[in-house]
């Protein structure tokens, strides 16, 4: 059973940066594709970024390409999301997820963190 804990959320002004981190309690994190999703009030949870097990492949939703970067350190069992040039529309709870394959579909993921709030003020 994979357990995930996110950290690094907070309040930032538009144009600022935040770095989210996800710590996984699992023996071999490289067996898992890892992703970040987000959910804004009144909206469905949406895909943000994903990274393959060994980190060679990354995927992003169009609205964050060029601004967000997903990375992983399998030796430390962590996955990070560096978020630059933040916009008010990035405001949401951000969730870390683990699953057997990379997917933009949240149903493909078998483990979720509790989420961390990101608020971008205009």
How is this structure best described in words?
With 122 residues, this protein is an all-beta fold. The protein contains no helices and 11 strands. Strands 2, 4, 5, 6, 9, 10 and 11 form a 7-stranded mixed β-sheet that branches. The radius of gyration is 13 Å and the shape is globular. The N and C termini lie far apart (40 Å).
Helix percentage range: under 10%
- Give the mean pLDDT: 97
**SSE ordering:** EEEEEEEEEEE
| Structural class by sheet pairing and helices | mainly beta
- Strand coverage percent: over 45%
The number of distinct helices, counting runs of at least 4 residues, comes to 0
Count of strand segments: 11
Instruction: Please state the overall shape, judged from the principal axes of the Cα atoms.
Output: globular
Instruction: Give the uncertain stretches in residue-range form.
Output: none
Features of the shown structure:
4-stranded antiparallel β-sheet, 7-stranded mixed β-sheet, globular, 11 strands, 0% helix, mainly beta, 122 residues
SSE layout and pairings?
Layout lengths: L2 E5 L2 E4 L4 E8 L7 E7 L6 E6 L6 E3 L7 E6 L4 E6 L8 E8 L11 E2 L3 E6 L1
Parallel strand pairs: 2-11
Antiparallel strand pairs: 1-3, 3-8, 4-5, 4-9, 5-6, 7-8, 9-10, 9-11
């Amino acid at each position: 059973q994979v357990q995930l804990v996110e950290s690094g959320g907070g309040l930032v002004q538009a144009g600022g940066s935040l770095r989210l981190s996800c710590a996984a309690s699992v023996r071999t994190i490289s067996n898992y594709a890892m992703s970040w999703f987000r959910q804004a009030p009144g909206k469905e949870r949406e895909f943000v970024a994903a990274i393959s097990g060994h980190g060679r492949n990354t995927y992003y939703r169009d609205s964050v390409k060029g601004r967000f970067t997903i990375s992983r350190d399998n030796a430390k069992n962590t996955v990070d999301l560096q978020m630059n040039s933040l916009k008010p529309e990035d405001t949401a709870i951000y969730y870390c997820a683990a699953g057997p394959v990379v997917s933009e579909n949240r149903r493909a993921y078998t483990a979720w963190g509790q989420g961390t709030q990101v608020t971008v003020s205009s």
